[in-house]
Design goal:
It is a single chain. The chain is of the alpha/beta class and 374 residues long. 45% of the residues lie in helices and 17% in strands. The protein is built from 14 helices and 13 strands. Strands 3-2-1-4-5-6-7 form a seven-stranded parallel sheet, with helices on both faces. Helix 8 links the parallel strand 9 and strand 10. Helix 4 packs parallel to helix 5, helix 7 packs across helix 8 and helix 7 packs across helix 12. The longest helix is centred in the first third of the chain and has 21 residues. It is globular, with a radius of gyration of 21 Å.
């Protein structure tokens, strides 16, 4: 088979060292490499990053600064297409500037005559309705659209995108493989169950974090457990983790342990840390996706609809939300899953296997598209 070489620019929230978004990039790069080999197309990625030197060093790919328009334009001009995604790029909950930026990059590629691909994006919330026609205009010119949940697809349909043009796929991280090497921060207290905890600041009153702390405080009174905090975005998540640990207090008298996983250098490192847990309690979406990827029982706390959407794909629902979390109910669910890990795996392994297979579909479509264009 004669290999054709193609260059693809990848636009997303990259270089900010958010574990979830970096895992999305790693997953996309891995899937593109695998599918390009299968289709006989050599895909050379160019990543738009806030820290291109770091991105190049970590992933071994070419990278340009996402905020330097001249560099972005030149990279797209020299490419064979642009991927936008994955992650929650088209939403205005964090900033009204987010949607214009990502649409602007897509529009620039379209002006330059390049095919554009939407890769497993989580779309929404879009609270400012004046963004609707902007999104519709750009997406109608895309060569391929995939979203990571049905709710994102429904939102795009409400904006005027045909349902036939939208493919619903899992988050790319569901397809991220894990090598067998041991982690630098391997769990030492293997004799007691490991509860991985991924939290973030959200509710200004910290009511959900206080409820988590109250439940954990009671849990360590009942059994010895390793509370392993997994900060997905530093320093914020580490501060939120320490807020909870301070409220839990000293646990040593019960034989319990508190630790923080701070050794992440590659996305696979955090994935491996999650795989070493017996249960994941997560606010961060990708802590839950990592857990599902590794068939680790999970409990999600919702601060955003994307948490609910992912849990629904697993046939589950949040244990509570950032505005309403009952410590007693949380304690009950943690104990239930710690005592029935194998049962949870049996109930969900088939769903997880399907999600893993479907996660590579966007990469396959893009590789075949590039191959067919010659």
């Amino acid at each position: 088979m004669v290999s054709t070489s193609k260059t693809i620019v990848i636009s997303g929230y990259y270089g900010f060292k958010n574990s979830g978004d970096e895992a999305v990039l790693k997953s996309i790069l891995t899937a593109l490499a695998e599918e390009s080999e299968a289709t006989g197309v050599t895909i050379n990625p160019v990543v738009l990053s806030i820290d291109p030197e770091w991105t190049s060093a970590v992933y071994g790919v070419k990278s340009v600064h996402r905020m330097r328009l001249g560099e972005v334009r030149q990279a797209i001009k020299e490419s064979d297409g642009l991927i936008s995604g994955g992650g929650s790029l088209l939403q205005d909950a964090t900033s009204p500037k987010t949607i214009p930026y990502y649409l602007g990059v897509l529009k620039l590629a379209q002006w330059l005559g390049k095919p554009t691909f939407i890769y497993a994006q989580g779309v929404g919330p879009v609270n400012r309705k004046f963004f609707y026609p902007m999104i519709r205009s750009v997406f109608r010119q895309c060569s391929y659209i995939s979203v990571r949940d049905t709710q994102s697809g429904q939102l795009l349909q409400s904006m005027g995108i045909s349902p036939q043009d939208i493919q619903v796929v899992p988050d790319p991280v569901m397809g991220l493989p894990l090598t067998s090497a041991a982690s630098d921060g391997a769990v030492e207290s293997a004799s007691i169950p490991v509860l991985g905890i991924s939290v973030r600041y959200w509710n200004a009153e910290r009511t959900e974090l206080k409820a988590i702390a109250k439940a954990l405080q009671e849990l360590v009174k009942r059994r010895a457990v390793h509370l392993r905090f997994l900060p997905f975005y530093q320093p914020d998540d580490l501060e939120a983790s320490r807020f909870i640990a301070d409220h839990v207090g000293d646990v040593s008298s019960s034989g319990s342990v508190i630790s923080y996983y701070l050794d992440e250098k590659q996305p696979e490192d955090m994935l491996r840390a999650v795989s070493e847990c017996d249960l994941i309690l997560g606010m961060r979406l990708h802590s839950l996706i990592y857990a599902a990827n590794q068939e680790v029982p999970l409990l999600g706390i919702s601060y955003d609809p994307k948490i609910d959407h992912f849990l629904k794909r697993l046939g589950s629902e949040p244990v509570g939300s950032s505005t309403s979390l009952d410590a007693t109910a949380l304690l009950r669910q943690m104990e239930r899953l710690l005592d029935s890990k194998d049962e949870w795996i049996d109930d969900h392994s088939e769903q997880i296997a399907v999600l893993k297979q479907e996660a590579v579909m966007p990469a396959r479509h893009i590789a075949e598209f590039l191959r067919d264009r010659g």
